[in-house]
Amino acid sequence: MVPGPASAVDEIFKSWVSKGVHVLEEPHDDVFGRTFVITDPKGNLIRVSPVD
User: Fold this and answer.
1) Which of 38, 47, 49, 50 has the lowest tally of Cβ within 10 angstroms?
2) CA-CA distance, 8 to 1, in Å (whole number)?
3) Given CA atoms 43, 29, 33, 7 in this order, what sign does their dihedral have?
4) How much is the pTM?
């Protein structure tokens, strides 16, 4: 979970994509705020979202 505005989630996305992460869901607005989903090297899902 990321503190701060929606742009903080977008900044993390840009940083991680530049490092080559596998993206399953591009950043988008959901009922709980800005979010995206990536996988780690073992295939585990990682959702990044704002602090609730």
Assistant:
1) 47
2) 10
3) positive
4) 0.90
